[in-house]
Amino acid sequence: MGYVAVKAGEEVIRRAEELFEKRRIEAGTADVDPDQIGGQLGRLTAQVMGEAGLFAPRLAALAVKQAQGDAAEATFLLRAYRSTLERWGSAVPVEPAEMFATRRVSPAFKDVPGGQILGATKDYTQRLLDFDLAEDDEPVDPTADWDVDEEEPRALRNVMDLLREEGLIGGPDATDGESNATDGERNAADDGASAAEPFDSTREPVLFPAPRSAVLQELARGETGAVTALGYSALRGYGRVHPTLAEVRTGELPVRIEHPYTGDPVEVASVEVTECEGVVPAYETRDEPRFAFGYGLVFGRNERKAIGMTMLDASIQLGGDEPAEDAEFVLDVIDGVDSFGFVEHLKLPHYVTFGSILDRIRSIRERKRERGADAGGAPAEASADD
Fold first, then answer.
1. 236-247 burial code (b ≥16 CB/10 A, e <16)
2. DSSP string, 333-382
3. Separation of alpha carbons 217 and 205, rounded Å
4. Would you report the helix, strand and coil content of the chain in percent, each value rounded to 5?
5. Where are the alpha helices (DSSP H) in 67-211?
6. Fewer CB within a 10 Å sphere, N or C end of the chain?
7. Cβ atoms 37, 45 nearer than 8 A
8. SS3 295
9. Residues in Cβ contact with 227 at an 8 Å cutoff, skipping those fewer than 6 apart
10. From CA 270, how far away is CA 254, in angstroms rounded?
């Protein structure tokens, strides 16, 4: 009978999976191509890539399709796939200043080198439902009549350099004047780790106190909602970080590897990333007033997460007693796959565990009734030993 029960259970599970798939391909609806998902739902696929730690736009779109739009499930699928891949080598470090920026805004300064580039954004419009999107009409390109002058892409100077040159930035990259350090060296500087050899949290366990490169890597793979919520907690008074964003950028960052024969760096691809840097007044922590800073860089167009990462990076560097300032707490709770698994595993059978707890409660209640009966009065309270 035990064998039959197991087989019956397997059959039920198989049918549940088939029913889940049927919901995705309900009769009367056209199947969605991964290219359509990647193009029209690019923000969602960018979120999945960032949380999975794998830049693979088409595979991320496929994961979104398979998960029926569940970002956490899609991240789980893509990260599981990533774990099967062989690592052939490492890319050559590149400077964020090399980014071909399609969007760049500086809330801190009105006039910045290279100018403000709004790019594609709805930041300045009302959030109203567009019912025209429900129509089946052929979409019209709203930029079709633009008169665009072709021009060479401008090299955009990092806004933070303006503050660094004055020695106004404190923390791992503090300087007292003109700095010869590159952006990458400044942002990767941590407890003795070099920019060339950052900590790899996918291969080594993160121990605390963790180097800053490990913190940044885990923040970059954190779940967008969790990173945003914990960053928001600092803004709401559970911390002392309310940053001014020096710069938010989105664009294409080159990927280079060493040529196997010549050893020269060769550009083989580019990845879309979002970068954010913020500054926080830290008057009371230093002899000379300076700013502390936070840094965020994530795959794709995901400005909300990059900003949240910036706030958490600054909070962890400054330290304190609030949740957002505790690196161990932050890194333990922001991983979407970890939290997704722990929370959803509660749906799985817990018969034995619950049966044991139920037996203990019943036993305690029975002993209380017996004591009350022996005393000839009201039931006695159970002791801690019970």
1. eebbbbebebbb
2. H--HHHHHHHHHGGGS--HHHHHHHHHHHHHHHHHHHHHHHHHTSSPPPP
3. 12
4. 45, 15, 45
5. 71-82, 160-164, 183-188
6. N
7. yes
8. strand
9. 219, 305, 308, 309, 312, 334
10. 4
For 344, other C-beta atoms within 10 Å of its C-beta total 12
Note the pLDDT of residue 153.
58
Of the candidates 171, 172, 220, 177, which has an alpha carbon nearest to the alpha carbon of residue 192?
172
CA distance 238 to 377: 50
Which residues lie closer than 8 Å to 39 by C-beta, 6 or more apart? none
Locus of tokens 């696929």: 45
Q: What are phi and psi of 286, to 5 degrees?
A: -140, 155
Q: Say which amino acid occupies 326.
A: D
In whole angstroms, give the CA distance from residue 296 to residue 282. Answer: 19
Rounded to an integer, what distance in angstroms lies between the CA atom of residue 320 and that of residue 239? 8
Measure the CA–CA gap between 249 and 102, rounded to whole angstroms: 8
For 173-186, the pLDDT digits (tens) are 443 333 334 444 44
User: What is the value of pTM for the model shown?
Assistant: 0.81
Distance, in Å, from the CA atom of 305 to the CA atom of 291, rounded to the nearest integer, reads 22
Across 74-78, 145-149, 157-161, 375-379, least confident range = 375-379
Measured distance CA(354)–CA(108) in Å, rounded: 55
Closest CA to 320 of 281, 368, 285: 285
Per-residue pLDDT tens over the stretch 224-233: 999 999 999 9
The amino acid that residue 4 corresponds to is V
Q: Other C-beta atoms within 10 Å of 73: how many? A: 18
Angle at the Cα of 301 (from 297 to 305), degrees rounded to 5? 55
